[in-house]
Specification:
CATH topology: Arc Repressor Mutant, subunit A
Mean pLDDT: 89
Bound molecules: zinc ion
Oligomer: single chain
Helix content: 55-70%
Number of helices: 4
CATH class: Mainly Alpha
Low-confidence stretches: 1-9
Strand content: 15-25%
Largest sheet: 3 strands, antiparallel
Order of helices and strands: HEHHEEH
Length: about 110
């Protein structure tokens, strides 16, 4: 099956996309704990780290994190512009703390740090 250019998978290979989805969520949660984030900015940030997500992939992901109560969003208007910004909730901050422990543990094992 031939994919059109605009519908390329978010990460190079389908299997990898699946593998990285948790990392991407943790990454988003991390930034949302640091400061308010918005979709386009997050797409650029993730691209900087080698993850190529389309808005069609990122927005459902953000929405999913909001539905789970880890993020909350509001529409921010300035002049003609409006965009939805996301912040971590208290539960999101707690989830990040728990995730950090696991990432650290995994990191230690993968890189054999004592
Ligand atoms: Zn980052």
């Amino acid at each position: 099956m031939i994919r059109s250019k605009d519908r390329s998978p978010t990460v190079s290979a389908d299997g990898r996309q699946d593998l990285y989805s948790g990392l991407i969520r943790i990454h988003i949660l991390y930034h949302a704990c640091e400061e308010p984030i918005f979709g386009q900015g997050m797409i650029e940030e993730l691209r900087r780290h080698g993850y190529r997500l389309s808005p069609g992939t990122l927005y459902p992901l953000l929405h999913g994190l909001e539905t789970k109560g880890l993020l909350r969003s509001r529409i921010v208007r300035s002049g003609k512009w409006s965009r939805r910004e996301y912040r971590a909730t208290a539960a999101g901050k707690q989830a990040l703390r728990a995730a950090k422990k696991r990432v650290q543990e995994l990191f230690g094992e993968i890189f054999e740090m004592e």
